Amino acid sequence: MEYTYQLPNIESIGDTWTYFWLQLPYGIPGIISLVVGFFLSAFSFRRIFHTSGEDRILSLNVAISFFGYGILGLVLSLRAWIMDRELLLALNNWLYLFILLILPSNFYICYALSRKKVFLYYTYLCWISVIFGYVGLFQGLGFHNEWFDYQFGKYPKATNFIKPFGIIPLVGYFVLVLPFFTFQWKILLIRIHKSLFIGYNVLFLMTISNAPVLLGYNVYPGSFFIFIPLILIAYGIFRSDFLDVNELLFDRNGLFYILFGVVSFSLIVLSGTVALGLSHSAYLNDNWFPHALPPTISFFVAIFMAIIVAGSNPQAKINQLCAFSLIITAFYNLQSIPTKLELNYLILLRISQVSFLIFSLAPSILSRFVLKAIGSERPKSLRVVDLISILCSVLSITPYLHNGYYHYDYGIIHKSSVVPYLLGVAGFFAFIIVGREIRKRWIFLPKESKVALGSVLLSGVFLLTAFFPSHGFVIPPISDYLFIPTTLLGFAVLKLGAFSLPGRTIRFSQKLANLGIFSILFASLLQMPKFLEKLAFGESLFHITLVTLPLVLFNYLLVYVFARPLAEELDRSYILLEQAKKEAELAGEESEKLLLNILPKSVAEEIKINGYCEPKSFEEATILFTDFRGFTEVAKNMESNELITELDACFTQFDEIISRNQLEKLKTIGDSYMCAGGLPDPNYTNPIDACLAALEIRSFMDQMKDIKTQLNLPYWELRIGIHTGSVIAGVVGRFKFAYDIWGSSVNTASRMESSGIVGEINISQSTYDKVRFLFQCEHRGKIVDKNGERRDMYLLKHIKPKFSKDGLVPNELFWSIYQKIKQGSKIVLRSKLETEKIL
Known about the structure:
This protein is of the alpha+beta class. The chain is 63% helix and 13% strand. The protein is built from 29 helices and 15 strands. The N and C termini lie far apart (89 Å).
């Protein structure tokens, strides 16, 4: 059956508990201010111990300011929730002891930013007003028992002791702060993030907007929305890393402790609320069993998996995002549990609103988790999802969340209003954005990532089924069974490498937690007879479970957090022992790496086995020489560090090129570079390998020349010479030994380089005969060698068009011929037209 619901009139409520549930949404912004204020204050206090001098004083004032704003948020919530005016007046008097400290702290922050003495003098004036206010507050004379009543709370009129707190910031902002921010905003934006700048200004404005009420004028107080600038400031601090927040959140497990501080508080509140606020009449509905079991199981499974996942590796962002996702899912199931019981619909509505305040962030958090799981950056388009999610979160505590309800045999289902539809839109956008990234990377994703994605998708399908009963279709929602995908999600993330250390941390924590669990369960069973007097066995067991299980999880979490450092120390001890065993092996490996960095692998192996290397003759090796033209002249105009850096950059690139082309680096002499192919392991492709390497080296130097020319800087030009012939190779020396080659072929290769043309590759006749079928060459005359013999020289231009598109990169035909040559085939002439054929 479909029902509409009208909220009761606040003036007709005489019950304190009903008054609290009616006013619950108006206190939530204050609680947000409390959490954000304390969060920022805690990090600011930590910064105190890592700074000195004026920076330490600034950090202290920032911490005090945020703490005061957190307390102000608490006061705003109490003004909305507490019906007893006498109690509320007493709380205002005591809590304003902390709120007054906001005044001098804020003006000192302005002094630290501006370095203008006038702000420091105004800070002293603020401290005088604080002391004056303390005199009244300690006597209980801070406020009159006269009130301004608004829908969002009761505001008392201040006495003369507190009125300066309204006047001084009002004057100070418009006379000092506003002109400073107006004329110095460009300079400030260089030092701090834009959100930080805007947040502080709005925070000042909302603080002074409370002044008329304190002074006795019925003007709408803006401090109710103080959580907005606090969130802006928090965002600005995250973006500017003003307080080293990223280090604290992940490197020092800060987010882990914050996350589970919130979870611990929620578990205790849940247990206490059920124990004290859930009466026996709640079970009058005979159909509460078994429909209340699935959401209850889903809630506790999600919380348990969140503890395991986040605690397994607090430094990993993917773990924290997964934990947030699980907790958000838990809040959805939390609001479903009481709908199966006989409770006042006002209570059901408020619990749902508070739950959706968190659950509305699901599209944003789940999208980030999925993107992290697939290793993708966050697209800018995801901001649309963030904005809609935040809007839904804000609107969840308004009448736009639900519009009446349906009553089915399996419980009450809220009738959807604007917020669920907006969440659907956010989910659709998130699905499109994330789906596009998944499609790009799907084939590269590991199995665990695909399982995690599947569990998120399955959760979305489960949640979509809630659409039908919320629109009058008598179809039980399977969203109550979210423990199925959440369990898969948790295990998938653990499989992705969630453990920062071996799993002894979890096992150790579990053993300690079991002691507390058994004691809690035993104490609960002792209470069972009392419940059986009024409830049946199943109802009594369910009630005790709702009271006990949050305490069990809280105990597990508490032990897990405090036992983790000890468990990690044990793990580190095991790791150190294992590392000690491997040190000898690692030392041997390092020695081998060093040896391989000096000598070819086969030569190094021979020396390791025999203690020496036997010289060997190679009938065919190809030697490549390079040399920079005018190196000495250019070097004269360069600093020594600059010279060495540029030369190292060039030779490093040469090393990579020859390594790709199966050549062996031999040595460098000044600006000359020498390498060879076909040794120490003979092959048939060494002339081709040398020519490919030479083309790459020339291309690299041409690119460097173009860049230097555009920058109007001097550049180096290169000569390259190549010759193929017989050599003798071996290791010379006993200390600082080196692999080297000897023979007339070395001298010929050197002559090919020295007689070459700048920017060209000069090759000998013997090399030309080996590569002319694949490379375009030009005859450039003869040269007289050391023995007086005349030798032909050729300029290597590029790979022939038949075998390459651009003359530098070989095509498939080139490589097919290369493979045949590598296997021992030879290229021979078929006719005078020099057509070629592979035999």
